Amino acid sequence: MTQSIAKTDPKRGQAFDDLDVARAYANRAPYPAKLFNRLGELTPRRGLALDLGCGPGKLTRPLADLFDQVHAVDPAAPMIAVGRDLDAGDHPNIAWFVSTAEAAPLSGPYDLVVAGVSIHWMDRDILFPRLCTHMAADGLVVIIGGDEADDPPWAREWPALMSTWISRMGGTYDRQIFAAEASAHEAWMDIAGRETITSTVSQPLEAFIDGEHSRGTWTRQKMGPDRTAAFDADLRALLTPHARDGVLTYDVRTRLTFGRPRSTPSI
Fold first, then answer.
1. Is the pTM for the entire model greater than 0.85?
2. pLDDT at 14
3. What's 58's domain CATH number?
4. How far is CA 48 from the centre of its chain?
5. Does residue 168 sit within a domain?
6. DSSP strands (E only) in 132-244
7. pLDDT confidence of 27, banded at 50, 70, 90?
8. Residue 226 within any structural domain of the chain
9. Residue 182 — pLDDT band, cuts 50, 70, 90?
10. Where are the beta strands (DSSP E) in the chain?
11. Could you tell me if residue 218 is inside a domain?
12. Domain-located, residue 156
């Protein structure tokens, strides 16, 4: 449901280099267990996986239960630090790298490369040609989207609130621009398939609000204390009628697009 400001500022991703944002990630909707089952089915050889834009490791840690080794890459040091803390040493087969995807010390061949709600931050012209030289012969790139409420009970009221607040933050609420930005990487893939996995999440209302502050548009540092308090109050007022005993229940549709990377984009 969350729309972000159209990408006009190349420094917009710096919002994630923030410990508060990294911690708030824990309150984004979780990926379902069925996702990891499916990733295992798609990649029967499970030697080495690469998680690009790994954040605090929502994909990384479960992948480490499937693969011999996982390389986790994110340009924000706080994200890597929180990822290490959450793992608490449970997976010594994870190698964490503070780096952009474009400059990361890749050392394939990779059986699986994933990017979860992060590919739109990356320079496709640099990244995809690099991936082509580091893939296993039958390795796959899987782009994963959908860590937000999909058509929840508050869907009708949500766009007006987002439009108001994105305007207050100096942006424009434009679904078409956002959709184009979110799918631009597809020209750099020979797509073999698309799938959707639906799951149901129950979450305390206050945790849902905290999770919104992990998104680049709504970081507390960017908003400041006064706007943060006002934003939270508006969200609380909108969501409370849809909560039962302070808990929201909503569906999440996790979308997978998978295939091989291209060295040049399709026309």
1. yes
2. 67
3. 3.40.50.150
4. 21
5. no
6. 135-145, 189-204
7. very high
8. no
9. confident
10. 48-52, 69-74, 94-98, 110-116, 135-145, 189-204, 247-261
11. no
12. no
